[in-house]
Amino acid sequence: AKGATAFTVSGSVLESNIAHNGTGGGISLEYEQTPPNQTLLIGWSRFVRNKAATQGGAIYASQTFANRPSNLVFSLSNNRGGPCYAPHNTSTYRQWAYTTHLLVDSSTLVQNNAVTADGGALALRNVNATASGCNISNNSAAASGGAVALLPGTAQLIVNDTMLAGNLVSKKLG
C-alpha cells in the first residue's frame, strides 16, 4: 500500500534486554502521529528474560491516537453482540480501522517481565495484533496481564494455535 511501512524481525534472539525507564524490554513500537499503515512482523524468533520498567516485558506496541470506527460491517441473526457492541442495533458488530499491526508467528516469548505495570510478554494499546503458533509462557507483570495486557483504547488480539502457560501477575488488584 502507498505509504505503508513494514518492519520484519525473523530468526532472531532477543535475550536479557532491559528498558530501565520505559516500555518494551525487547522491542518498543510507538507511534505518536497518524501513520499511513505500520506493520511489525515477527517470525521464528525468541524473546527470553527481557524486562521493561513499566509495560511489555518482551514487546510493547502502541499508537497514541485512537482508532476510528469504520462502517458496521457484519450482520448477524443470533444477536450475540461483540467486542465493540452497538447497543442500538443488536445484530451488528462495529469494526475499528486499525493503522498499526503486530504479527507474531512461530515465536517464543518466555520469562519476560513488566516490572512495575502490565503485560509480561506483550502490552498493546490501539493496535491490531495476532499471535499464531507461539509459546507465551512463564512471563510476569506487576499489575495486570501476566502474558498479555490490552491497555486502555481499542487494542485487538487474535490468538491461534498458541500456548499460554505459567504466566503470573504479582499484585492482586481489586
Overview of the molecule:
- The chain has 174 residues and is mostly beta strands.
- 0% of the residues lie in helices and 48% in strands.
- The chain contains no helices and 21 strands.
- The protein has strands at 5-10, 13-15, 18-19, 27-31, 38-43, 46-48, 51-52, 59-63, 68-75, 92-97, 100-105, 108-110, 113-114, 122-125, 128-132, 135-137, 140-141, 148-150, 156-160, 163-165, 168-169.
- The strands form five sheets. Strands 1-5-11-15-19 form a five-stranded parallel beta sheet, with no helix packed on it. A five-stranded parallel beta sheet has the order 2-6-12-16-20, with no helix packed on it.
- The termini are far apart.
- The model is unreliable at 71-94 (pLDDT under 50).
Poorly predicted segments:
71-94
Determine Rg (CA atoms, Å).
Answer: 16 Å
H/E element order: EEEEEEEEEEEEEEEEEEEEE
Q: So what's the overall shape?
A: globular
**Straight-line distance between termini:** 45 Å
Q: How much helix is in the residues?
A: under 10%
Strand content is: over 45%
Structural class designation: mainly beta
Topology, number of strands: 21
